[in-house]
Amino acid sequence: MTKPLFLLASTVLLANCSQQTASNPSISIDHLADLSGGKPVVAKEYRLRVVIEEKGKIVNESTLAARPGKEAKFSMTREFVYPSAYQLAAVSTLKVPASTSPRPYPVTPSTPKEFVTRDLGYTGSLTVKPEGGFLVIKGMLANESFIGFSRAPGEAISPIKDAKTRVTLTENRVDLPNFVRSETPVFIAGLPGVPHKIELPGVKGSVTITAEPVP
To answer: Is the pLDDT of residue 16 over 50?
Structure first.
């Protein structure tokens, strides 16, 4: 049985002494000590730039204003409309030539009668505050995506055939959308003005966050 909801979680740290990667370069212990005990990057407001990439292409970007320790939210979504209820197939009875009795024909397939909307894309909430010479960014990123349709089950919404000829009169389809949601906790402890990238395996992409004090 397939679950409609997948939760993916990852956290990001700036300093990683045991491994060096493109997004987590090593830092000397002396430099770390200087920054940790240095003058805090204090400001009344910080600028957060959020850039989201999928398959190497920028798909969304946003700039947020955040006060120290206060939550800043962003939404990069589009509206997805889909049917939520259907009028079931209707059959008319009429006299067919060379027939001794009326036959159920023609047939109108199941048709949508109610619609709902759903916001798809990226949402997030972030906070930033200084710790020594570093800025610490915490929060949550979420993505909700449409991944395709699947056919709804049931005899009343199955293909309809002529009883004698076995010819399919209508597919009588009711297709339901499938959505996947992924969530990624955020923890970044880095230098102001330096972009920090977080991989988003749920969408095969990444988000890059840059924080800097507003003069």
So the answer is: no
